[in-house]
Write a structure and sequence with these properties.
Order of helices and strands: HHHHHHHHHH
Number of domains: 2
Structural class: mainly alpha
Length: 160
């Protein structure tokens, strides 16, 4: 199954591991898609290109442009880029607070959103709010719901 579109390709992995950006240009977007987060990070952070192998600044700039042109053919690259720009330390801190709040109050189904650290000021239901939100809000809603479900399962298992 390896190598099919959607599955990580050993060939692409070897190219990335070797830092051979020029050969990536010849790969189909479907073969690159599993490596998209890494490619986006590589394109945005020149230091990742320099760390992969010793290069000059000119070579690094050329490789960066090549990686940008490679990922430009993949529409999902913009979504990956927006998720990589999130403030993960703040998100983690809020998730820890949410988990503590759930332990204290319990995973009540109808608990008001005002008692949530991650899912604040919801005007609509969870599904509609998720569909209409930006990527940061979506991640916060997802984490809130996931932590609520985990808390509910943990509570039910501990009383069994």
């Amino acid at each position: 199954m390896a190598g099919r579109d959607g599955w990580p390709s050993p060939d692409v992995f070897q190219l990335l591991q070797a830092g051979d950006v020029e050969k990536l240009w010849g790969c189909r977007p479907g073969k690159l898609r599993p490596f998209l987060p890494y490619l986006v990070r590589m394109a945005l952070s020149p230091s990742s290109l320099l760390l992969s192998h010793s290069q000059t600044t000119e070579t690094c700039a050329r490789d960066r442009k090549l990686v940008l042109s490679v990922i430009a053919a993949i529409p999902e690259a913009n979504s990956v880029h927006s998720y990589l720009q999130m403030d993960f330390p703040e998100l983690r801190s809020d998730a820890v607070k949410e988990r503590q709040l759930l332990r204290k109050l319990g995973p009540a189904e109808e608990r008001p959103a005002a008692q949530s650290v991650l899912a604040t000021s919801m005007q609509f239901g969870m599904a509609i709010e998720f569909e209409r939100s930006d990527h940061v809000r979506r991640m916060r809603l997802f984490l809130s719901e996931m932590l609520r479900v985990m808390s509910k399962v943990w509570t039910q298992c501990s009383f069994s």
